[in-house]
# Entry
Amino acid sequence: MRRPRVLSVSVAAAQPLRVGARTVLSGIGKRPVAGDVAVGRLGLAGDEQADPSVHGGLDKAVYAYPSEHYPFWQTVRAQAKVADWGEPLPHGFMGENLTLAGLEETRAWVGDRLRFPRCELAVAGARQPCFKFNAVMGFGQAAKLMVQSGYCGFYLAVIEPGPIAAGEAFELIPGPREVGITELFRSVMAKHR
# Structure
């Protein structure tokens, strides 16, 4: 089995985002960047979070999303008639900093470590979708579909700061394996119903 790897590293400055009749500030519009990107304790250089009450901080410094879910979102956006059937989604579209190949939520547990060549991150929690996710996806049921599918991605804490770049493979070092991302996500989202 191939080692999991980073397909892209994406960042964004906080920008105005149109949500229905109002405009809010958001850092969800991530775009891939080339070369090394410095990873510090609070996240990637050049990346901003507009609402620190729910994004950012030590336990949400970096957001990772499995590339394996991109075809699902491409299909549901086409079904919702907000995109063409063949329109690919660019990496970073889900608001993630790291688009990963080879590590989905079902294989990630809180406390697992991702050892990259020059930095180390730890799985810290599951993403919770919000109204901004619906706005970016282009249809009002996107957050509900994330909850139903469990395709949430996960937040990472920075254990060892250092540069990271697209194309790098990483080693998954198992933690205590007591709280899985999928189970944590379903539990947290059940409380919000």
About this structure: Helices lie at 70-79, 131-137, 142-149, 181-191. The chain has one domain: 5-191.
